[in-house]
Structure prediction request, 328 residues.
Amino acid sequence: KATVNKGRSTQNDTLVKVFESTSEVKVYTTSQKNKENRKEKHDVLTIGIPDLSQVSISTKIGNINISEVYASISGSMEGGKLTVDNMDGAIEMVNELGDIEINNSTANGVVIARNGNLNLKNVSGAMASIAPQGKITLNIDSDFYKKEQKKQPLLVRLAEGDINIKDASNGGTVELGKGNLTVNDVKAPLVINCEQSQINLTGVESIVSLKNKGNVLVRLNNFKLTGDDKDSPPSTYEIENGDFTIEISLTFNGIFELWVTEVNPSGNNLPILTNLTPSLLGKVSVIDNANLDNTFNIRETSYVATLGKGGPRITIHVTNGKLNVKTY
Prediction:
């Protein structure tokens, strides 16, 4: 059964009403005017929630902190901040004016900060996050795996906002509509599907499958395919309407397939730029596919290059953008 501290101070007990039955506990709070005609409010109200409870919340003002709860939470807030820490369960909450922050939780459902920001850290589960007038930020670090208690792959989906993943050592899947995506330490196969985002990947040491409309920067470390990864498809980067930059070490071992598609290109400048020795890239292939009156042309520019002793195969296809291969 739920426990209520009734606002701590005895003089404020009258501002908290508790009604109990065999199946539920209802808690109401209010304010009242004192002798100086000023509103008195109860102190911090703490409610203990049993596991597997169904909790409904409705507030007009004030902050709500939910922590260490294994339950189903639903309700609405007219203002104030909602903070959720270490929750496991279902959540359906709407905050009309304030921000929502969720940390170290596994949650299913939906949270809406209608006129505020939504900040998520180490959150997993099928939870829709909506902030139509504000900003959504999702951060994932090494503590995420400690919470999960096992090295499971990431599964991150966000319609719009910023995603910052500091540790992607177990790979997984990341889906983002519009926004910014930063991923570090990719040490297992990773799938990234974005609609229109700015993407920055560093410390890539595994197979990546990436699709995006927008600019992409990838910093690639030396790596070898082992075990089941040897039979996996190559890394594929598919970019439209943006530029792709890949940075590799001078001692990188791998096979690059570089391919740029240009619709009605202007001039004859190559869309593939590099500071590699030309002999490493081999011979460029340029094919123009123009109609009879040359009013429409699709130009295909491609290289196939084996660097060092060969190794992982990496396919990069850019449509209507530049491809830059740099060394570090």
Observations:
- The mean pLDDT is 86.
- The longest helix spans residues 143-148.
